[in-house]
Amino acid sequence: MPVTQFMPIDNDLEAKILKLLAYCRASNWAGYDPYDAVNSKAFAALPFLNSRLPRLVLTQVLKRSPINIRRLLLIPKTQNPKAIALLLSAFLKLSRIGVPEAGDLVELMIERLIALRSQGVPYWCWGYSFPWQTRTIVVPRGVPNLVCTTFVGNALLDAYEQRQDTRCLSMAVNTAEYILDELYWTDGNSVAGFSYPTPHLRNQVPNANFLGAALLCRVYKLTSELKFLGPALRVARYAAAKQHADGSWEYGEAPSQRWIDNFHTGYNLCALQSIGRHAETTEFESCLRRGLEFYRAHFFREDGAPRYFHDHTYPVDIHCVAQSIITLLALKDLDPSNVVLARSVFQWAMNHMWDERGFFYYRVLRFFTIRTPYIRWAQSWMLLAMSALLCESNVRVEYSETPDTTALVEAC
Predict the structure, then answer these.
(1) Is 190 exposed, middle or buried (0-12, 13-18, 19+ CB in 10 A)?
(2) What is this structure's pTM?
(3) Dist CA 221 CA 149 (whole Å)
(4) CB–CB of 38/130 below 8 Å?
(5) CA-wise closest residue to 134 among 237, 7, 251
(6) How high is the pLDDT of residue 402?
(7) Separation between Cα atoms, residue 382 and residue 355, nearest integer Å
(8) Among 78, 97, 186, 221, which residue is least crowded by beta carbons within 10 Å?
(9) How far apart are CA 319 and CA 233, in angstroms?
């Protein structure tokens, strides 16, 4: 009878994961965020400052400052639903390969997501734990947005698929109904999308559209509800058509959104892969392959440092580090050398962005490093990326009494 063993190849990686997990636990899963400036109690105490320009200025100052002055500005640390969702997905991965403590935290993360749902909305949906100022509007605290909601929905589906928790499936299906009922729109012709960042704004942002479409396709696969599939594919086709001939996508269609960056491109690629798998279609395969070729060619230095933008290196952002690892591992079947590159990215981050107190820095700039330990932007993302890397580093060895029948099979 075959015997199954799990062989952790990278014990140092597991040790770093446990150290980062301990940091997040000690922080009660809460922290600051690059975009939480409007959460400052100073705006309530000094109403004359509470307008678009001061909010924008303070947001940019705090993002770019090497010194974290949020405590002085009375900005509280918060639990963010997106961070909790990323942690849930990470803990599910780690529990699957037997990492101590991870399994016990899965239920806690699910309960936190239940508690953090957006209020006053008859659907399961989520928003950020702080108000945030875009270039045009301020989005109030807790107002649901598509990107946050899709990450939570996917984490709940991860929990359902691994643990058969029907409560998680029910919430995720209702989340898909929210996206379909409240966010999906079309002009009746070729244009289709999902409203973002609020339900009344019809901005065309490819990564948000792909993320929404991918979640609908995943729910369709699990429920066989055709109502989710048609709109998902219509939106995905519109967003895919915005890909340039070189394989890139600009962040959005508005004149102020014409940049090309690492992690949003990673979102696009992972979502396209998910759409193809769950909708059982190959129509996006050429789009995916061109996108991966552009991604590998433009977003990585030879030493493994991931570029934020496609045409220059700095800043090196920890979110780009994490999404690079996740994207490269997810698409390893298209290019096996992705695994080597993902490890190179991780090693660069450990050499330049890891603090031995158990957390990752925010950004490396040309002349200095911003060491603020953000929970959503940095720690939760890196815990998920490192969990994916640890799964890749583990093999399941199935063997019988005959040595030459030994087979190696991936654990994750």
Answers:
(1) exposed
(2) 0.93
(3) 19
(4) yes
(5) 251
(6) 40
(7) 13
(8) 186
(9) 28
Tokens 């990752």 belong to 360
The Cα 287–Cα 271 span in angstroms is 12
Tell the residue number behind the tokens 């989710």, with chain if given: 228
Half-sphere exposure of 62 (CA within 13 A, CB side): 27
CA atoms of 176 and 216, how far apart (whole Å): 6
**Per-10-residue mean pLDDT for the chain, 412 residues long?**
43 94 98 97 85 93 96 97 98 94 95 98 97 89 97 98 97 98 93 94 95 98 98 98 98 95 98 98 98 98 97 96 98 97 98 98 97 98 98 56 35 42
Residue the block writes with tokens 């403590």: 101
Please name the amino acid found at residue 123.
Y
Cα separation, 155 vs 93, whole angstroms:
11
Are residues 291 and 272 in contact, defined by beta-carbon separation less than 8 angstroms? yes
Structure tokens at 9: 């190849």
> In this structure, what token pair is assigned to residue 143?
């107002």
